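Appendix B, Record 12. Input sequence as logged:
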Amino acid sequence: MKIAVLSSHLPSPDRTKTGGVAYVAHRQANALAQRGHNVTVFTSDERPADAYYQVRRVLSARPANPFRAWLWIWHLAFRYSTQDFSDFDIIHAHGNNALLRRQGPPLVRTLHGASWAEAIHAPTWKKRLWYLSLTPIELWEVSIASKVVAVSACTGQFVQGIEHVIPNSVDTEVFCPGPNLKYQHRHNHPAILFVGTLSGRKRGQMLLDLFQNQIRPALPEAELWMVSERNVQAPAVFSFVNPSESDLADLYRRAWVFCLPSTYEGFGIPYIESMACGTPVVATPNAGARELLEDGKWGVLAHPSELGTTLLSLLNDQARRCSLAQLGLQRAKAFAQDRVVDAYEELFTSMVNSKSQHNEGRGA
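Logged structural output:
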């Protein structure tokens, strides 16, 4: 098949923060290309060094100014609408497909979350207005798609018309326990890993405050490792800005506990990455975490008021950490990349075959 992928971003070492959708689009496109499909990603970024697919850059990178960034979204949608997709069998959009015509190859729209839910959990009115302005666009994108896929069932609570749930995948060749990294070979001090932004729904600042005011006083050797958009200067806090996937996987493997206390996740890729590396997950009960962890079956869910004591209890209980690590490894198998790519490949093939049969019927 010839597959056109629409993704505003791809992984970039030059960007301070690369969102999870960029990595998802990259991994899926790579996997499909390695299976023999002809894949072209239409994006605003350069082609990653490890890409097996082709890249067609249709617009320069998104500006930092919020108003210009909002205009940029429409500019990118317009640029997508001017592309000639007639030579492709299918289009897979991770967003920005609002101006595409209904005619042409079948269009699959994957929702990685819901802007309405993002608006509900936005920490400021400016952010709330930003996401509310995107909600009509998102609904229109869904309405013009041939098929709509969500990465989690909880997304269906906010967006109607979802026909398939195909979760995000984890690359278990990168995110894995490692042959020589058994549990007793973790970092020599209790280490909590966080991956996300300090502000906003990821609540990195809240975790930082808990660490300084509650965890470190009770456990002086504890460390907090923060993979975030900027360096944090604080005792026993270590910052990692935009690490490579292999370096990030190593952080997961060496950490004692992973904690992401988000108010909302459409899926929660870091939870799966952590479990695939054999590291226990502690999350607040947001929609994505509850679904992935099945309400605490595969990891720990703690309300913000109990997060500090929960982390301390887990850091002091090696047996429980080992048990949770094994549960996480078992859970991560459900999100193996091959299984997820199989589901998309099956969906794409059925849609292409259905269109061919329809065209043959009309010709008859």
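The chain has a mean pLDDT of 92.
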